Please model this.
Amino acid sequence: MFTVTTLVLAFNTVVTAANGVPIPDGTSVPVKLLQFISSETSRVGDPVRLVVDRDVVVNGFVVIRRDTPVRGTVVEATRHSVRRWLWWNRVHPGRLTFAVIDTAAVNGAAIRLRLVSGGERSVTPLIRWEHEGELFDAKVEGDYFVPPP
Model:
């Protein structure tokens, strides 16, 4: 039984390697921010520089390499403001939201991504920012297939 299972697993690995590797929808891609962004200085449409934080492995094969660039963009940026009227102050906290767009597989094919955590936190301080080196969890959007190397 043990040898049959081992042979089947080895055969499946060889077949997968020969045919390529599927990257299923929802595969986790850890991304790292390469710049400081702030609600005070960012504008909608500004590019956000990120990279893949570590190799993405599917079925024992690297499908997206570490340090592969990730495209991102600011989708909402509102500065902190205070409106005063006589004795009443109305505070509008800063707000910053960004999205990841895509990255590349090991063969250079574009892989669309969506941001799962971060980009917008549940606590909204007066000024919103993210620091360089901050980690975020992105997911593959759609099913992809990477041909064998």
In short: The chain has one domain: 2-146. The longest helix spans residues 2-19. DSSP finds one helix and 14 strands in the chain. The radius of gyration is 21 Å.
